[in-house]
Amino acid sequence: MTLRALQLVSIVIALAVLLPLGLVAWSALSPRFEIWQHLIDTRLPELVWNTLRLLVGVGLGAGVLGVGLAWLVSAYRFPGRDQFAWLLLVPLAMPAYVAGFVAVALFDFAGPVQQWLRDGLGYTGWVPPIRSWGGVVLTMSLVFYPYVYLLARAAFSERAVPMIEAARSLGQSPLSAFWRLSLPLARPAIAAGLALALMETLGDFGTVSVFGYDALTTAIYRVWFGMFDRVAAGQLALVLTVFAAVLIWSERWSRRRIRHAPAGSHRATLVPLSPGRAWAAAGVCSAVLLVALVIPAGVLVKWSIQAINAGSLASNYPRLLANTATVTVLATMLVVLAGLVLVLVRRLDGRRFFRSLGEVSLLGYAMPGSVIAVGALLMFESVDNGLASLISRLTGETPPLLLIASGAGLLFAYMVRFSAVSRQALQAGMERIPVALDEAARSLAAGPGRMAMRVHLPLLRRSLLAAGLLVAVEVLKEMPMTMLIRPFGFETLAVEVWLRTTEAMWIEAAPPSLAIVLVGAVLLALLHRLADPLERVQR
Amino acid sequence: MTPAITVSGVTRRFAGSTQCAVDDVSLQVDRGELLALLGPSGAGKTTLLRLIAGFEMPDRGSISVGSRVVASDTVNVPVERRGIGFVFQHGALFPHLDVRRNIAFGLGHLGQVERRARVDEVARLAAIDHLLDRYEHELSGGERQRAALARALARGNEIVLLDEPLSNVDRPLRLGIGTELRQILRSAGVTAVMVTHDHQEALALADRVALLNRGRLEQLATPDEIVAAPATQFVADFLAARHSPPRPAPGYP
Description:
The complex is a heterodimer. By secondary structure, chain A is mostly helical. Helix content of chain A is 79%, strand content 1%. Chain B has one domain: P-loop containing nucleotide triphosphate hydrolases (Rossmann fold, 3-Layer(aba) Sandwich). In chain B, a hairpin with a 2-residue loop joins strand 4 (60-65) and strand 5. Chain B is globular. The chains are: A mainly alpha, B alpha/beta.
């Protein structure tokens, strides 16, 4: 492929991201003020307040968990530290809406915990309600902390090693070196991790609806499907977009004037802890894993067995698996390809315009899935209606809505949402390829196409695989977009989980949830093996 | 006879810098000679080399290869059409290809049989015929640079530019490996320009030495002349320095 073709494709990808967002803004700003007025008079203040305090709570919870655990495993030696270092990432495989319904099922009035309190202990007093701000915040913190953990750990274990060692030689204890050096130096990484966790929180739809917690995303869904009001949905989506924009902006702002500290040439040596403290550290890590992963996964296994024994395993289960596999594989290939094009164009044509095209893709990841879904649907409707009227004029028959019915629309939406994920992974790999190799290839008369095929692609193999695994985990878990854009009657594991949980059929929701968690965990384990050969060698 | 390379009044200033990296430099490189560009860090040696190669464009002045203008206000011949081979500081061998395929990388226009013959020919010239199946990480510093030179020669270029080719070779081995590289260049019959910050290296290996300081050409002469009659105070001081300036930090491992 020539450079010209790559440039063209990268422009198309950037437009694909911008178009749905533009349509949302356009429809929201269309002159129907009475709907705005109605929203403001009725639900909007409450929705904004709910969303805001959700962000604050999850930011604190995920921040403390992520930073604290990252510091433990990257600074100290304690029993099981090497296993905890990667096991603590695995809760990423647990979709928030799965953790949510397990929590609600366990702790609600009819759930086993309260039953045990009443029947076993005879306690009938006040119990903190699970369907509350606190319940949502706790659940989301436990599934979203790995974003903070992942980035903070990388910063702690690599960035500032020489400086920490300098501080230690100046008489600072490890703990004071943490407060005075590691934490400030890791601030950009922590901010980036928090931004990811908060974007997930903002875009989440499944968890808040299981908890019956009214947020902007649930309102969009209700307005779109319940009231068939495109304009009002667009307007709510716009409010959500403002939140996301503030998030991106504050992440950038927190990094102002900070350059990345130079990467250390070696890793920190781990400080051994006294036996008591070492076991306490192991205990903290185990407790988090227990609550975030082991208990929910155990409950899912138990319920799945019950579901199978009761014969209530959905008869379409094999179809669900096949649908999910198909969608995940196709979407992953498309998304990785899109990221690859963006990264190659940036490398081969250093002009600012083409560099900024890649940044545009970040917008897609920052936008909640439901916003992209609304934008994409607005877009497909007009295209599909145009196609349909053309076809009916030509043939006299009324065809179905082609883009949505064929699933092309769904793949498009995944590309809009996740190309940033693959781009980031591939960009990191690309930056490890010395520019001198490009110049050597040029001096040997290799054009851009040949350079990309013969030099960049082979050297990016690992990064391509890593990008694919990351994207696959995301697509597998994705629910709100899939829910809104899927072809009629097309169900995936995530959709099935959501449909069952809305009917409070916890047992029936367990088998598809378990499948998502298991496959996700396997993908993350593969990713770990791929990403960190360095760590294993140096141990 | 026209010189192999003619540089006339070339100036290059990088955005955001007040000082010119290369400041109104003119020089000629004769056919078949080995010219060393010598000077301290930041003297503009590497920038001048990259300007000749075509990785950079001059802001003013012109560069000719033979009688053909390759860079001027109106002309910019891209790297791959200047007929110039380049040996990078750390070799820049493609790490996923063995030495044979590295050398063959620029020979896509040849048929398989010819390509193989050409690879064998330059490999013999560079005395690396026994290393053709190795990968970059399986080579010593000197072998790596010989392989990089073989790759640059394979396309039959008449000019080869070398950017600090000895900088990641252990100091005691440098002159020996430098002499090997010079012999390879000689037997290939090419014109070469080599960047170095080590005056011993320059004086021992080059036919002529161009001494640069802050982007300006201080003196261009044979090693004997330059030692016997330094043109400026700077040249005298630079040659008198007992130790060579410290090695620049490597760009990549």
